[in-house]
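Task: encode each sequence below as structure tokens.

Item 1
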Amino acid sequence: MPRTNPLGAFDIDWNARPETVVADITARATRLETPCGDGTMVWHRWDGPIDGPTDKPPTVLLHGGWGSWTHWIKTVPLLATERTVYAADMPGMGDAADAPEPHGAEGISTIVADGINEILPDGTPYHAVGFSFGGVMGTWAAARHGKRCVGLTLVGAAGFLDLHFIVEGIRVPELTLPDADIDAIHTENLKRLMLVDHNLIDPLALHTHRQNIARGRVRTRRISLSNALVEALPRVVSPMGGIWGALDATGGGVADIEKRRDILRELDPDAPFDIVEGAGHWIMYEAPELFVETLSRHLAFQESRAR
């Protein structure tokens, strides 16, 4: 039967206060919790098309380092008109409990993969979509789950060792600073790392970024700068794909982004790989409609190959 609290693409008041926007989208989700250390990892589920069930496999969205599900805040309302969407708060970030030591790719991704087993029981097929650090986590989860993972899509993913460009000048503000100073530091960080179009550093982008940094308790950079993704890729049997902003600050330029494409295609020659002109690292916030259109094309292609 149709959902009673649908999340349509056009019924979000994006001009409302950022706290209101986040609360509105959160309220339309079902909150799920799975084990994480001494506490739980948090998931949000939006139940798909407003007209009823879909036979499309659900999509699991995994956020970047120092992030939460709100990295996908502009993706969820669009994608959930097509299919069921799960968005994680991964260990040590967002509303999730602290990640057990040591903080390595295998340990954290095991919690994520085990969480997927709980939220999608009985071997339910799913798509994994990983942004930045989440690309590492999605790759390790896909490697564990075999053909159950219908497709793996990497979005500006980390874990490519020396191909990952280090963005200089990123600062974590002292909490004792005045609010205006904290906002100014986060705005500069967003300019350097996340968004090419500085006009898009709006109150919602600043609010979600500031909240995510304040709640981050895992130093993900060491994993992001490692070869963890590339090490796990040969164990992935799912169809693969990639979406990168051509101006991604972590990409090192189009030539280096194409090297990532070539790594994927060595293992999956048919892997779609889109490099989006004019977009930066946080492409799904900067160009949400184009991103979801591109992602939907990837997911449909992966599903056609998995049948």
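Item 2
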Amino acid sequence: MVRGLSLRAYLFVIVLLMLIFGGIAGYLYSKFSTLAATDFTPPPITIAAATAQTAIWPSQLEAVGTIRAARGVELSSETSGEVMSISVASGDAVKAGQTILTLNDGRERADRRRLEANLKLARQLYERDSRLIKRKTIPQSQYDRSLAELNSAKAQLAETDARLDNKRIIAPFDGTVGIIRVKVGDYIDPGTPITSLQDLSDLEVDFSVPDRYVPNLRPGLDITVSVAAFPGTEFKATVSALDASVDAGTRNLMMRAQLEQAKGLLPGMFARLVVDLNQSQRVVTIPETAVSYSLHGHTVYVLAQSKGQTTVRPRVVRTGETRDGQTAVTDGLLSGEWVVTAGQNKLYRDAQVTIDDTVELP
């Protein structure tokens, strides 16, 4: 009797265990079936896109240069002396021939009065001997001596006049006086800087370009000039001259351009230039935000549609200039291809994407 009860207990336990493990197995099977049926594909990434376009761009060359006055000098004295008077103020406009500064010329003026008297006497003696030689009442040697003394007196007076001129600093052309670096009472030596004189009505810009562009360069090319002092303002210029040789150290060619309507510009300003080479070129352009730059190359993400899905693939391209927010692609992309312009940081090869509603599909 006891043995029968024990057997039934064992059977009950076995059935109970089977039910428990069967339930666990069913639960696990249901979970694994659900996981197997789940789609782990990442959701599409939202991006913005644009179509590569074909454009005609003028061929341009960028350079930097320095603005200079076509007529501009640093004034200094050729002789030494004490500054007696300064006839202009810093920043004044002066005319050609106007006196800017005068040195002490008292000794030279005294010498001139003495030499004027000597010249007057020498002229009188010469005129007297000229009459006497015609009458043959004096020897030829006396007449020759009178003529030589007259010429000598004229030369001495001219020399003194030259020294007097050196005591005055004269404006060689119309222009604007810079900061005057001396004052009345100063004693200056030859070569001492006094001030600058610049003709601000006639400005030029000097710049240099690599020698590989030489075949495309010539006088008359149009230039757009910009300076930091006038942001957003462009000044026009025209190439006026090319240097006769290329600098052997830099392999650059020096050029000069004539500025037009350069009001407000000053000599010495740093300038950025864009030279129009007057040669149009056909280029493929994309928004500059479409290009990802790295040491390994410039990359764009190109979109493709397959089986109703839109995916992207990175592509290395070669880029050129950027103008007005558009970058030229010289190699690696065709006109009409579709590229990502925003959201590249979330992309990877063959990633599914969805286009922002504000961007029209091609």
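Check on item 2: The longest strand covers residues 270-287. The two ends are 89 Å apart (CA to CA).
End of task.
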